[in-house]
Prior knowledge:
Layout: H1 2-23, H2 38-51, E1 58-59, H3 61-74, H4 81-88, E2 98-103, H5 109-118, H6 120-127, E3 132-138, E4 141-147
Parallel strand pairs: 1-3
Antiparallel strand pairs: 2-4, 3-4
Amino acid sequence: MNKxxxxxxxxxxxxxxxxxxxxxxxxxxxxKEFFLKEPVLFELVNDYRLKKDLPPLKKSIMTCGIxxxxxxxxxxxxxxxxxxxxxxxxxxxxxxKVGENLSRHWESERDTLDEWLSxxxxxxxxxxxxxxxxxxxxxxxxxxxxxx
Length: 148
């Protein structure tokens, strides 16, 4: 009787393994997909700024609109080119200074902030006394727009 139960357990286990194998098309160790959360990253940025005695950034409709446009652009053209053309061609621009941070392929919001802090140009944006900002992310691609 014990041999019958063991045989049933082995067959059931094998079926589960084969089902998972088939579901993953023969690749049981596929990479995870990561989805970074803008509010978490925004809070980490503001926590960093508070530790540096800088005022927290406030979200604005304008910076969020630009971040959204830029996120769509960088999904196809990974560069700052669209940012420069967008901000230089806007006659109604109400800000004296603007900045942009981009990131991709980082698995967490903390990794993204740490990467920005290790890059002099990105860190410069984080340390500048900007007043407004917005972060937009899709998967692991994030755009942060700064304005003052």
